[in-house]
Amino acid sequence: MTLSCSVAVLILYLTAGSGDTVYDTYTDFVEEDFTPQLDYKDPHWCHSPHLANGELICHSPRGGAHRSTLDTRCEMSCDRGYRLIGKNSIHCLASRRWSGTAYCRRMRCHVLPLIPYGRYTCTEGFVVDSRCDFTCDTGYRIEGEHSRTCQHGGSWTGEQPVCSDTDPPKIRCPLSRLKIAEPGKLTASVSWDPPTASDTADKSLDVILVGPEPGSDFKEGPHIIRYKVYDQARNRAACKFIVRVEVRRCLQLSPPLHGYLTCSSDGNNYGATCEYHCDAGYERRGVSSRVCQFNRSWAGSPAECVLMEIKSDVKTTAALLDQFYEKRRLLILSAPNISDPDYQMQNIMIQKSDCGLDLRHVTVIELLGSPPRETGRIKESQLTSEVIEGLRQIFRISRSYFSMVLLDERGRDRERFIIPMASDELFSYIDSFLLDEEERERLELHRDFCD
């Protein structure tokens, strides 16, 4: 502006000197575009440059530390984490202005997505060098990167992790238990409460029982009961406990000499009953049965099998029959006399089948003839006339013809035969209608004894 005014004044002065007065119609001077002369002497031609969060490297024609003289050129760069927006090179113009502008803007990465069942926290948000650490909800674990860092180029390191349910559920089984078998049984019913299961991630759990249901009957010995549980991610947990059933037992009973035992249940377990039986020709002396008690001892004292003594000199029929009641069966054989052919034939067959009759607990009573020479006998033992008459009256046995009457152990008339019977036929009837199941089994074991 100072230069323009001087030119105007000079023009006005020269015109006045010629003797004519010239009046300019302009009230002010118009600044024309021109290229000024470079003045390297002014060190502050342009304002001092500044780049926040960046760096300027300037080269001045004057050299040295001059940063804003005319025609100074500055190269601009940003600090780490910042991006240069604008021109990366400017120079100081004659108009005392820089040829362009630029600034450093903080670089950012995109916003990280949220992860199901987890979260993240970042040190400085989503800017460069910020680190975001990932954590999962209780019951879940990180699969993948545990953290990601915003890089200088605006991208995140690594891959986005996921939160997976890898924590197995927890299950607690009931305590193991011991159960005593009930009397007379080899099993015991055992119950328990189902186990409780929990999971940090899921409320719905699939609990599976491996083994018998609560309340089932368990045999003697240990039984392992297992439970398995799965959560929705199929993580598995298991537990187990033992159910032990104890059968209290007594020492095995020894069978009596000339006899045997029949026992219920397993023979020597708590509550089992063993009955004493005697072989043919022997009778029991003592208790009929013994029971295994909870304290593992047998009730009562052992019985004996002693040689059966038949008192034939009794005065009444009842006294005779009482000796056989519930012990022996009776086969009463009657004939008019000893020379009766039917009797003789039957007598021969009975003598040959004597062993088989003893196995079936059958005693033979013979009634022969008529008074006053009538006889009655059991083997070689003679019966009194009162007993003979009583037998004939009670069981209606005639003296006139050959007959046989078969009585059971209760003294009941079970069958009558009016002709001689072969041993096979007689035994078949006895086996079919008079023996119980235990006696049949016993007979099968000793069937060859008489051969």
Automatic annotation (TrEMBL):
Record flagged with keyword Transmembrane: no
Extent of the signal sequence: 1-19
Chief localization: other
SUPFAM superfamilies: Complement control module/SCR domain
Domain Sushi stretches: 56-106, 107-165, 248-307
GO CC list: cell surface; cytoplasm; extracellular region; synapse
Statement: the UniProt record of this protein carries the keyword Cytoplasm: yes
Protein name stated in the entry: Sushi repeat-containing protein SRPX2
Species of the source: Scomber scombrus
